[in-house]
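User: Is it possible to get a 3D structure for a protein together with its bound compound? The compound here is heme C. I've pasted both below.
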Amino acid sequence: MNKEGLALASLLLAVAAATAQVHDHAPAPDPSPAPASGVAALSPELRELFKLEMAGLQGAMLELVPAVASGDWEGIARIAARIRGGFVLAQRLTPEQREELHRALPAGFLERDAEFHATAEALEHAAHRKQADLVPFYVYKLTEGCVGCHSRFAQARFPGFAPAHEPAEHAH
Ligand code: HEC
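Assistant: Yes, that's possible. Here is the predicted structure of the complex:
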């Protein structure tokens, strides 16, 4: 993983760690109106960077569909490279922040983030090779990456991923 990728991984992981800690170590309900989330536990600077990173990611995904649909291989490769390299975090994280975040990384989050960036790289290569069959597959894999991470680590932000009531085995 390159430096930028590592920086993003570190930040993402730290957020996940914070989220996990809140859930693991805060069994007593928080009386404050807005219960602290993982992101809320981060410094305001890092929270802001994280949101910018996610916004950049989302923007890139939205650009991806028309590029894929029109066989714009160069455009796809360029967008994939941006996703792989990260948006704002890589440029703005201090070495201290990076180190601090890295210490807080839970394995599950790290794996998801690494896999996500590997998929972006695979998409970039497939676009360079004009592989019209593989490109949409990797776009799907990226989307799966968003869902996989959000459903595990961002339920507070995306309540749609909160576990539904345990369905009784096929209650027809
Ligand atoms: C490895 C983990 C991970 C991956 C992969 C990931 N996200 Fe996120 N994302 C998060 C977490 C954690 C949050 C929740 C932050 C919070 O609690 O406010 C989040 C929040 C967001 C937000 C809301 C930001 C805000 O301003 O509140 C957007 C938009 C977003 N993600 C888009 C995406 C998209 C699009 C993808 C895939 C292309 C993606 N994310 C992939 C971890 C991830």
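Residues 14 and 100 are 8 Å apart (CA to CA). The two ends are 48 Å apart (CA to CA).
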